[in-house]
DNA sequence: TTATTTACGGATAACTATTATCCTTAACGA
DNA sequence: TCGTTAAGGATAATAGTTATCCGTAAATAA
């Protein structure tokens, strides 16, 4: 599962994967990968774009989306979809895992609990589905937002 | 939690709740509630609208959305949000519960597992969040879609 | 019953995150 | 260095949902 990998090592992994599949590692792509590897707050496409504008003033938001789409296809980024908000991305742990989401400020953190094998098997046994992914989100207020109420 | 309530009883509950809060129960709203109470396949807004066009040829899709928004606000319907697909609605069990979702045909079924108290408490202890809701989705292929591959 | 007020329904415009399109430019191999 | 092809940038298009506006129906009071 490649857990507990440093941001730089994770960056190398993503670059290697792109090269293996004959995709070019352009300066723009490298920059997006770097932000993803070093971000633990699950940034949105616009967050990533905003962070890159300093060094890449002409960086298009479309390029960020295209790079994210490529990484999704390679299984190198996890997309957290929201219908009413913008999607958020996790490049450090691209496999399904639980998230705790603040409905006040939008913060997203990863809890340590990760064990879904058993419960996933239970669901398959009961429903006959062949389950390949899952989503486990908890919604509430983070400590900061609780205090500032 | 009002589990295992018959569709007709569930319909009465929703109507009662609307009247309590001084909302009118118009023929259009009644029709939307009825579809929600009798549907177990988690219909979309358009599904509901399509089912009603026979008896209400002038029913507007906006009316369906408005009624769903009202029910959401009252906590009488659960909205399952998808960023790439249309949202789906559960009027029978308006509280958070797990779903098993077919990525082939879009079918959504409710497994029997419902116990989230313990795991929810664990998340609160670890993160300091005050958790009020959750989402637990399993994605895979239903038996029918597995066979027709 | 009638008048009055207010909420509701219907049609449609607006919104917004994301994707597609199109053309130019940059990357890589020979 | 040249030629091929993928990638970037700007912008149009998409689609589910929400907002707006006005006519109408529902509830209340006289």
Task: Kindly describe this structure.
The structure is a homodimer of 149-residue chains. With 149 residues, chain A is of the alpha+beta class. Chain A folds into 2 domains: 7-90, Arc Repressor Mutant, subunit A, CATH 1.10.10; 99-147, Dna Ligase, domain 1. Chain A is built from 6 helices and 5 strands; from the N terminus they run ααααββββαβα. A 3-stranded mixed β-sheet of chain A has the order 4-3-5. In chain A, α3 (45-52) crosses α4 (61-74). Chain A starts with 6 loop residues before the first helix and ends with a helix. The model of chain A has no long low-confidence stretch (mean pLDDT 93). Chains A and B meet through α5 and β5 of A and α5 and β5 of B. Chain A binds a DNA duplex (30 and 30 nucleotides) through α4.
Brief account:
2 copies of one chain form a homodimer. The first copy, chain A, has 149 residues and is an alpha+beta fold.
> How helix-rich are the residues of chain A, as a percent range?
40-55%
Q: What is the N-to-C order of secondary-structure elements of chain A (H for helix, E for strand)?
A: HHHHEEEEHEH
Q: What's the structural domain tally of chain A?
A: 2
Envelope shape of chain A: globular
| Count of DSSP strands of chain A | 5
**What structural class do the secondary elements of chain A suggest?**
alpha+beta
CATH superfamily of the largest domain in chain A: Winged helix-like DNA-binding domain superfamily/Winged helix DNA-binding domain
Quaternary structure state of the chains depicted: homodimer
First CA to last CA of chain A: what distance? 39 Å
- Strand fraction of chain A equals 15-25%
Instruction: Give the CATH level 1 class of the largest domain in chain A.
Output: Mainly Alpha
CATH architecture of the largest domain in chain A: Orthogonal Bundle
- Name the strands of the widest sheet of chain A in spatial order: 4-3-5
Mean model confidence by pLDDT of chain A: 93
Could you name the CATH topology of the largest domain in chain A?
Arc Repressor Mutant, subunit A
The greatest inter-chain interface is formed by:
A-B, 37 and 37 residues
Main β-sheet of chain A: number of strands, strand sense, barrel status?
3 strands, mixed
Number of discrete helical segments of chain A: 6
Pick out the low-confidence regions of chain A. none
């Amino acid at each position: 599962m490649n857990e507990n990998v440093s941001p730089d090592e994770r960056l190398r992994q993503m670059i290697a994967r792109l090269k293996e599949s004959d995709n070019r590692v352009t300066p723009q792509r490298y920059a997006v990968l770097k932000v993803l590897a070093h971000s633990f707050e699950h940034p949105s496409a616009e967050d990533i774009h905003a962070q890159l504008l300093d060094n890449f003033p002409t960086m298009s938001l479309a390029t960020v989306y295209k790079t994210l789409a490529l990484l999704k296809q390679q299984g190198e980024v996890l997309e957290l979809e929201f219908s009413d908000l913008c999607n958020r991305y996790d490049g450090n742990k691209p496999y399904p895992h639980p998230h705790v989401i603040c409905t006040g400020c939008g913060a997203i953190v990863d809890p340590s609990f990760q064990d879904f094998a058993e419960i996933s098997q239970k669901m398959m046994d009961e429903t006959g589905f062949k389950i390949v992914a899952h989503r486990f989100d908890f919604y509430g207020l983070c400590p900061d937002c609780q205090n500032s109420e």
